[in-house]
Amino acid sequence: MTKKSTKTNTIISEETANLLFSIKAITLSPQKPYRFTSGMLSPIYLDNRLIISHPKVRNKIVNFYLNLINKEIGYKNIDYVSGTATAAIANAMFVAQKLKKPMVYVEVNKGEIHKSKVVGKLKKNKHVLVIEDHITTAGSLVGNVLAIRNFGGIVNRCIVTTTYRMKQAEKFFKKYQVKVYHLTDIHSILDIAIKNGYLKKKERKLIEEWVSDPVGWGKKMGFE
Amino acid sequence: MKTNIAQETAKLLFDIKAISLQLEKPFQYTSGIFSPIYVDNRVIFSYPTVRVKIVTFLITKIINRVGLGNVELISGTATAAIPYAAFISQMLEVPMVYVRDTKKGHGKKNQVEGVVANSQKVLVVEDHITTGGSAIGNAKAIKNVGGKVKYVIAATTYNLPISVQNFKKNKLKVFTLTNINEIIEIAVKRKLIKIKDRAMILEWSKDPSGWGKKFGFEK
Asked: Across the interface, do B95 and A52 touch by the CB < 8 Å criterion?
């Protein structure tokens, strides 16, 4: 990666975090954590599906996608775009339309990965770019990738709006041999949160601790 | 010359095999009903030139029949109509939401994904209409969170009596690009079916649940 492209990526990363905070797609509550439906406690809540309801923000995000795809992957290296159902379908459509590429989406069955379904018409031996809205542990991203591969498509690159950069996710990327590009990550999100006054500097550690051990965090911090 | 949207759409859908007809060995829907026709409009997004034409037709319909002033938000039904809703909302530069399938047991709370403002005028987008159930479910979910829904737009419909009744009952106006009658006409023209088969398919659209038995496919 050249110095120039690193700089653009930093701008994209910070601007994406800014936009997501502005539409409340990201909210932080380190003192009174959220409880996910799984029962897990978390100081951060993220809902990138809100992006679709904000046309200006949505356009900017899609342009960031195009910028990253152009620089890091190259339009020519993509035959198809595949979004993960349901959250990433709209995003995949926006990007596919801008690239004038065919699109499919995958209904991931996390319990039985081989039962995941590719929806649309995919041809074999085509290069597929997988699009995801957010990565926690990367379970659904992997589901998408495997479904496409099972069908006979070639996937080695994915692009996502946000990632928590969890160790589990990084392990998955390595295991399944996919390179994952992101618009923004937990580090930029926390930088922007502090810069904009959504988070106190001393609370940063609390959220970083959650990222390194989300399951044990609630107990460790005395919330559970 | 003015484009005949209904015929053009039917042709495009046959071209990409989104519509299939089987008279000898009919399809059986998951509901158990037998049918000589199967429509899968989800495939259109894998064909960039076809999808642009179909979405342009939908936008023409929206402008002419619904009116852009009545479209402040687009709501697609998950999952099949999400790409349609995304594409249309991108072209019209209006916000979008999508509604999860109510049958899959997602709580009412999370049924609508995205933001609906109070009294916002919402257009429901559907890929295909069989009974109208999922379009109506979408409209109800939007109304539950404060939106107003008067119109539904879809690519195709079988024109089943039950869908007509359902929409009437729920006070929804529906616009579609093409319907079973136009589809059959194109199928005859392209020699995909014989003229005498036309009546058999039309019978289905008048009485889908009784059809299988009547034609001896169901015991």
From this structure: yes
From the CA of A123, how many Å to the nearest CA of chain B?
Answer: 10
Question: DSSP code of A74?
Answer: -
Q: What pLDDT sits at residue B106?
A: 46
Neighbours of A78 (CB within 10 A): 19
Q: Which two tokens stand for residue A128?
A: 């597929």
Tokens standing for residue B51: 């999808």
Q: Which of B31-45, B89-103, B168-182 has the lowest mean pLDDT?
A: B89-103
For residues B186 and B191, give the distance between their C-alpha atoms in angstroms, rounded to a whole number: 8
Assign residue B162 a region: left if phi > 0, alpha if psi is -120 to 50, beta otherwise?
A: alpha
Structure ipTM: 0.94
Q: Which of A143, A156, A127, A37 is nearest to A84 (CA)?
A: A143
A224: which DSSP letter?
-
Distance CA A98, CA A101 (A): 8
Q: Say which DSSP state A64 is in.
A: H
| Residue-wise pLDDT tens digits, B138-181 | 999 999 999 999 999 999 999 999 999 999 999 999 999 999 99
Composition of chain B by helix, strand, coil, percent to 5? 50, 20, 30
**Chain B 33-72, CB below 8 Å of chain A: which residues?**
42-43, 45-48, 51
Domains of chain B: 5-212 (3.40.50.2020)
- Of B73, B90, B97, B101, which to mutate for an interface test with A (greatest number of A Cβ within 10 Å)? B90
Contact residues, chain A, for B73 at CB < 8 Å: 53
Domains of chain A: 3-220 (3.40.50.2020)
Taking contacts as CB-CB distances below 8 angstroms, the residues of chain B near A89 are 78-79, 82-83, 86
Distance (Å, whole) CA B208 – CA B2: 34
Predicted local distance difference test score (pLDDT) of residue A39: 86
Instruction: Say if residue A4's pLDDT is above 90.
Output: no
Please name the member of A86, A94, A104 whose beta carbon is closest to the beta carbon of B90.
A94
High-pLDDT (> 70) share of chain B, %: 96
Say if residue B33 is exposed, middle or buried (CB neighbours under 10 Å; 0-12, 13-18, 19+).
middle
C-alpha pair distances (Å), B205 with each of A129, A211, B139, B177, B193:
40, 55, 24, 17, 16
With contacts defined as CB-CB under 8 Å, which chain A residues touch B95? 52-55
Site of tokens 């995919």: A122
